Amino acid sequence: MIIKKNLSLKSIYEFAGHHLLWLGGWMLLVSTVYYFTRWEFMTIPWLPLSLIGTAVAFYVGFKNNQSYDRVWEARKIWGTIVNSSRKLGTMIRNYRSGETDNLVGAEIRRQIIFRHIAYLYQLREQLLKPTPWEHISLKWIYGSFNRRRRDRFFSLYKMELDEIAGRSYLDAEEQRGLEGCSNKATQMLDIQTQQLQWLYEKKAINQMQQVSLQDVLNSFYDEQGKAERIKNFPFPRKFASFSFVFVCIFVFLLPFGIVAEFSKLGDVFIWLSVPVGMIVGWVYVVMEMIGDYSENPFEGLHNDIPMLAICRTIEIDLLQMLGEEDIPKPVQAKGHVLL
Questions:
Q1: Which of 33, 94, 197, 199 has the most CB within a 10 Å radius?
Q2: At residue 5, what are phi and psi to the nearest 5 degrees?
Q3: How far apart are CA 329 and CA 291, in angstroms?
Q4: Phi, psi of 145 (to 5 degrees)
Q5: Can you tell me the distance from the alpha carbon of 251 to that of 245, in angstroms, rounded to the nearest whole number?
């Protein structure tokens, strides 16, 4: 997640500046050929071109709106996880049936909170696994560029990631039991339910308290399922792909229409069509890229939900509820990107 209010020129160039190169080359090629040949068949009336541009702008704008909905839904999911985690922590710590000594089940309560922290990091890890339609899974230069970009982000947070790996919130036996599971996060929630049942059977909590705690655990199943739906169900590929095709068509036709308009002002003004065409084409290309990079909020790139920072925030809250002394520091943004 980018936390800077305004993007610098450097950030803008790193994101989409390289497209100015081929746009400039294409505009210059068409303008040069027309300047020396004056082939009238190369020109396109501005009216049909403007109609195409308007249609493409509406289409891309609608796509961007739907892409943003996916990002915002993902953020709401993790916001709910934060709230439910705090509820779980305070309920596990303070719910007592009054029928047994307060020390009964104290270790189990501690294990439940520790396991929940491990669950959060496991869920994050599962959501970051690449899918075939994400940018980091693409082939050739485009895919390798985004893989390097992701690796660069992760390298900035190497210290935090190493610290997480060094904190073992699960015992060795439980870790071995989870090794063969395809969805470890789901299995960890199942173990949580088993331990809630143990607390009830030992009368450490009463039935109403068990039901309330189970409702909170069930909410994690709900939010995990919502996150997995976004992760595993791609933005409709035809809808996304044709947006790219339409932008390509418009950019391809753009210099033929612009050079026709500027040629009416005189021969010298034909060359002015190059920078103007670059700017117009670049605007459309960037609009397409913004929607394209917003489709997948769990990809590990700069537009992602900052799951690492959210998990660390919950971890700190829960450990402080337990009265632990070894409290990790909050994750800070690096390079204006919060992971």
A1: 199
A2: -65, -50
A3: 34
A4: -60, -45
A5: 10
